[in-house]
Design brief:
CATH class: Alpha Beta
Largest sheet: 8 strands, antiparallel
Mean pLDDT: 86
Strand content: 35-45%
Distance between the termini: 27 Å
Helix content: 25-40%
CATH superfamily: TULIP domain
Number of domains: 1
Shape: elongated
Number of helices: 4
Number of strands: 8
Radius of gyration: 19 Å
Length: 229
């Protein structure tokens, strides 16, 4: 399962040839800025692209609002993950833990959906939207390991016990829905609902699929550092 998360690209280039925590944190934050294009293209195709991030697997979203639904989202795409405008890091070298935050002003979110049950004669369709004021927080453990490569050995970070948390601070805008049998009643029902609840529904889904998200981010980060070693 590769859900937004992966949206998720905490601190690239975490090197150990720095003698202070502050220097190490600056290296990470500078590395994030320098590697926007690498995150977008998957480091030249060696890893999955993160911008746009395309989700191969389907995932469920449970809505317990004015309508109780269990929708399945397929072919989801998130565009804009590398457009973050703020980054912060707290690194604890005593217990080898970290917390890394990114703020992303907006993310374009689109895909296909299936309603269960059918709503106002609509069973499935496609949608596009803009998620606003998104914060990504990745927390976990790290340690340094010796990695052997063709040019010798290098100390690289290895991540574990990650949690990937999302907060959606703004309303969802630019919502468009296409489906057979769509009616004005359907539009008047779902547009206001998705405007206020799209973010919370995705946040809920991220908790449901936390194991898959965290594993994807862990594998991505660890493999990324082997590529860059």
């Amino acid at each position: 399962m590769r859900f937004l998360s992966l949206l998720c690209f905490v601190g690239c280039t975490l090197f150990v040839n720095s003698e202070s925590v502050e220097d190490l944190q600056n290296l990470i934050l500078n590395g994030v800025l320098k590697n926007r294009n690498n995150f977008a293209n998957g480091f030249g195709g060696k890893l999955p692209s993160l911008d746009p991030l395309q989700i191969d697997d389907s995932f469920s979203v449970n809505a317990n609002t004015i309508i109780e639904l269990k929708d399945t989202i397929q072919h989801a795409t998130f565009k804009g993950l590398t457009s973050f405008d703020q980054a912060s890091l707290h690194l604890n070298t005593i217990n080898s833990t970290f917390s890394f935050k990114l703020h992303i002003p907006k993310i374009e979110f689109s895909g296909d959906f299936n309603h269960d049950p059918v709503v106002l004669n609509v069973s499935n369709g496609s949608f596009s939207s803009t998620l606003n004021d998104v914060e990504l927080n990745i927390i976990g453990d790290f340690n340094f390991v010796t990695y052997k490569h063709q040019n010798g050995k290098r100390q690289i970070p290895e991540f574990s016990n990650l949690r990937v948390l999302f907060e959606f601070g703004g309303l969802t805008t630019n919502i468009k829905i296409q489906a057979e049998n769509i009616s004005e009643n359907y539009v008047q029902l779902f547009i206001p609902l998705l405007t206020t609840d799209m973010g919370p529904l995705l946040q809920q889904a991220s908790e449901t699929y936390q194991t898959e998200i965290s594993q994807f981010v862990t594998n991505y980060l660890n493999e990324m550092h082997r590529i860059k070693a």
